[in-house]
Design brief:
mainly beta; Complement Module, domain 1; single chain; Hemin uptake protein HemP; Hemin_uptake_protein_HemP; 1 helix
């Protein structure tokens, strides 16, 4: 899956929001690398997002 978005929205000049369920794809967690640090993005059973280091 490719989560890169390259086009800005005309109204706001910002990137459009990503759908968290598409970002995570299968399961309920996804690891994210930022400057060599690994973070875990998790969708809870209540439908909330939690980002932990």
């Amino acid at each position: 899956m490719n989560a890169h978005v390259t086009s800005l929205t005309a109204e706001t000049g910002q990137l459009p929001p990503l759908d968290a369920r598409n970002l995570i794809a299968e399961g309920s967690t996804r690891q994210i690398n930022l400057d060599g640090q690994i973070y875990t993005l998790r969708i809870t059973r209540a439908g909330k997002l939690i980002l932990t280091k």
